[in-house]
Amino acid sequence: MRNLIIKHACYLASALSLLMSGAVFAQTNLALNKTTTASSNLQPASAAVDGNASTRWESTQGIENSWIQVDLGTDINVSSTAIDWEAANPANYTVLGSLDGTSWSTLATRTGGTFGNRTDTITLSGRYHYLRINATQRSAGNNWGYSIWEWKVFGSVIASSATSNTSSSKSSSVLSSSSKSSSTQSTSSSSVKSSSSSSSAIATSVLVQAEDFTNYLDLTTGNTGGAYRPNENVDIEATTDSGNGFNVGWIQQSEWLEYKVTLAAGTYNINTRVASSATTGKYSLLIDGNLIGSATVGNTGGWQAWQTQKVSSISFNTSGTHTVRLIADGSDFNLNWIQFEASGAQSSASSVSSSSSSDRNHYDAPHATSAPVIDGVMDAVWDAAPWAPIDVFWLGTQRPSAQDFSGRYKAMWDAGNLYLLFDITDDVLFDNWANPLEHYWDDDSVEIFLDENKNGGNHQYNTSAWAYHVSTFGDAVDFTNSTTPKLLNNHITMRKVSVGTKHLWEMSVRVYGENYDDAKANTPLTLFAGKQMGFSVAYNDNDGSPQRESMIGSVDTQGHKNDQGYIDASVFGSMTLVETIQH
């Protein structure tokens, strides 16, 4: 396809230059031989981190939006990255970081790259478990796709005593991964294996990813698919199901997968996400050794044609950790996840708290007895807060259908943070703009309107109030003291977990006063019971159009000028911080 001799000569010259400078090779490459995935692979993604200068990852040709992602295996304090691009390289791309593989922050943006072999060395900072390169435009003269000889990541490993998220979560990229090509397996050998992965937080609804097993029985040696946990004998591949990520495939009769799941007391509906091109799939679910349900998997239309099955329901009188085992009673089906959905957890978005039923423009936020873990899972502490709807059509070409969008939210507080939980149904998550500061209002996002002293007025280019846009990647954007938007990720921490078209956004918000100044050190306010604030929320929905299609909000202000909230804090609703709410 291209002249390999010229490529290798250019690469070696670049490598020699770096060796002489001592800029890169004096450090340990923390990405070396780590698990790597990509939006497409003409040459394998693993070749970009194999330490071999003569192998490369190559994406599908002719596609502008492509990505490659590395799982660093643990949390890393990243300091820099070096990307050895082959001639087929991007003019524009971003480097993203994530702790959970779901919520992403933009770490660096590069534009104006030129065609030809080059090495981009980029300074980074922050704690991340995953890094991703998101290429959005090919360089002039690049008639192919994107290609990387070697991708190196440098930094320091977080000490083992620190909290680390080692589970595999779904990626929020809108690009697809590889599909299943075959279900054929031999049964010449078997293995039983234990692992340390488990779900530890007590929650009222839990999604268990198929690839996060703690024990297993697999009848074949090796990981067919090899997309995740390559040293295990369970067969794991990238999935094109909503949210991307991984699924377990090539499942044969008598194999089993086991999980540790911690649940609060209550009643749960148990659902699975399965796919098959065969008609022989069957499985049973056991909890703590007791059979609780069985199901069959017919031909769903393909190995990546996913269907959700309700298997059974179960009740627990006390909170605790349970052993869940899925046993294959038949062969040839794929498993994406198992869900324990608290009975009544997905009630109608029109369910409004007693504090706001008389006035939909006001919300009473209770004091959090303990801080919720910001992980996209609804901890039991959230039960103290009432749901309020996001259902007022603010602007757009037409009101979205219930399948296109529905939403609701909760809020709590403690002295240091305002906590927000959003339960969003959105059939298409869309994020088109790679630069989080460009056209951020046209991508899917949650918008938070906050006026801490409730004095209203114009706040467009000052900090008397805030209108945060929070993207699907967790980037928070607003104007501060100038006409240039700012990335304010130190104000808001967000994690999002998606199950099909349901998306749970969980956030902690540090509240700042109107004396906030970009040029100074700013201290968040201390919150207290009785404090009143201007407050409302909205969701910007776009299913793939050049501009935002609709904006749905939580309040309906006098004169219906809700869409002016990004300028005028007088159209916000209100919030009172209270100790408790009487249900």
Structure commentary:
It is a single chain. With 583 residues, this protein is mainly beta. Helix content is 3%, strand content 42%. It is built from one helix and 34 strands. It has one helix at residues 4-21; strands at 36-38, 57-58, 66-85, 90-98, 105-110, 118-123, 127-138, 147-157, 191-194, 205-209, 215-218, 236-238, 246-248, 256-263, 266-276, 281-287, 290-297, 302-316, 320-328, 334-342, 362-366, 388-390, 392-396, 405-413, 418-426, 445-451, 466-471, 476-479, 485-487, 492-499, 502-509, 532-541, 550-553, 573-578. Strands 21, 23, 26, 27, 28, 29, 32, 33 and 34 form a nine-stranded mixed sheet that branches. Strands 1, 2, 3, 4, 5, 6, 7 and 8 form an eight-stranded antiparallel sheet that branches. It has a six-stranded antiparallel sheet with strand order 9-11-14-19-16-17, with no helix packed on it. Strand 28 and strand 29 form a beta hairpin. The longest helix is centred in the first third of the chain and has 18 residues, at 4-21. The protein is globular, with a radius of gyration of 25 Å. The termini are far apart. Mean pLDDT is 81; it is low at 1-26, 160-204 and 345-358.
